[in-house]
Amino acid sequence: MNDISQIPAGLPIPQDDGAAAHLTGMRIPSVTLTATDGSQIDLAAIPGTVVVFAYPRTGRPGEPSLTDDWEMIPGARGCTPQTCGFRDLHAEFGALGARVFGLSTQDPAYQREMVERLHVPFPVLSDEKLALAHAMRLPTMDVAGLTLLKRMAWIARDGVIERVFYPVFPPDRNAGDVLAALRDAVSA
Question: pTM for the complete prediction?
Answer without folding.
Answer: 0.94
